[in-house]
Amino acid sequence: MSKYNLLWEYVQKNGTTTFQLTFDEIKDIAGIPIDHSFLNYKKELTEYGYQVGKISMKTQTVIFNKINI
Known about the structure:
By secondary structure, the protein is α+β, with helices and mostly antiparallel strands. Helices cover 32% and strands 26% of the residues.
């Protein structure tokens, strides 16, 4: 089980084509703050039908995009 499973399940349930979450929202959903390891874990999201788009350090946001499986 990945430390980001709660986040991946949330993203999958969202169902929209593209949406954005802040780092704080991700912390609230996942129960842990986003850190550098997120870059390694983000590939797991494709199993849930999404991919991580842009990660902005400036605005502290992450874009999630639905993929066609």
